[in-house]
Amino acid sequence: MNTASKAALFFIIVILIGCSSNDASKEEVEISEIKITKEFSAITGTIISIDSTKFSNDENSPCSKAPCWAKVKVNSVIGRGQGGPFISVNDTLNVHFTFTLAETTEELIPNLDKRMPGLKINDGFEANIKAMANNNMEKLYEVYYYTKK
Predict the structure, then answer these.
(1) How many degrees, rounded to 5, is the angle at CA 107 between CA 101 and CA 108?
(2) Each residue of 102-119: pLDDT tens digit?
(3) What is the C-alpha separation between 40 and 97, in angstroms, rounded?
(4) In sequence order, which ranges of the chain are alpha helices (DSSP H)?
(5) By the 8 A CB rule, do 97 and 143 touch?
(6) Containing domain of residue 69, as a range?
(7) What angle do CA 6, 7, 9 make, to 5 degrees?
(8) What gap in Å lies between CA 116 and CA 37, rounded to an integer?
(9) What is the pLDDT of residue 23?
(10) What would the 3-class secondary structure string for 54-94 be?
């Protein structure tokens, strides 16, 4: 095998190894004990205030029965998934908790696979957070599941 053939073979092997280990194509990245999904950032935060006036008009939504909006202070940024929002420590975020800030009982949300204890003002939590699409310039975020700290 001549030098040019060896160089070409080496180049092909390098490309194949590089392509097979590309983590950017994975759906989830595991950092600490939390998996960070694409379009999400993982944070720890503290509930600063809860908006008890903002309820959903959809009677089937748990947010028609319990508060879902809170201001959250970011205590730490654990990581950021591909396309996840850029969030910094000490940011204050307007966050929608999909399954409410109340305890997720069977009565409130039947058939939910992961129960959560509820969050109150000054409670800490860890969660994946996603930027929400909205029509105005206000930045809004969404949390599906959280772990109370």
Answers:
(1) 25
(2) 999 999 999 999 999 999
(3) 14
(4) 3-20
(5) yes
(6) 28-148
(7) 65
(8) 20
(9) 43
(10) CCCCCCCCHHHCCCCEEEEEEEEEEEECCCCCCCCCCCEEE
